[in-house]
Fold this protein.
Amino acid sequence: MPDTPRLGLLLFAHGARDPGWATPFKEIQRRLLAAGPTWPVELAFLEWMAPTLDQAAERLVAQGVATVLVVPLFMAQGGHIKQDLPRLLAELGQRHPAVTFRVTSAVGEIPEILDALAGWIGREGQNLL
């Protein structure tokens, strides 16, 4: 069995000028790693923050991953996910033709996430009554 991971997980968020903005995304990464996955987990940002998608993907490729699963930590698939991300991944694919780059739905479009948000909002509303 090879020592290099076959899968690398790349969490992809927008980024902001305020460093504190990244805290929940770093917490997602920390929780994933604490759960003990057998693959590396990188966090990347589109703009204003490091590492960039390119830098984080390069870290995964350097570890020998065969497939990079990109998880957009966005509420919906707007221009960044529909236009910017495919362009960035195409560039990575040209540099690393042996690596497969796959993309999940934006997390805000996943039914379980929407259920969790709606439940939390409902409970907050009930707490005000």
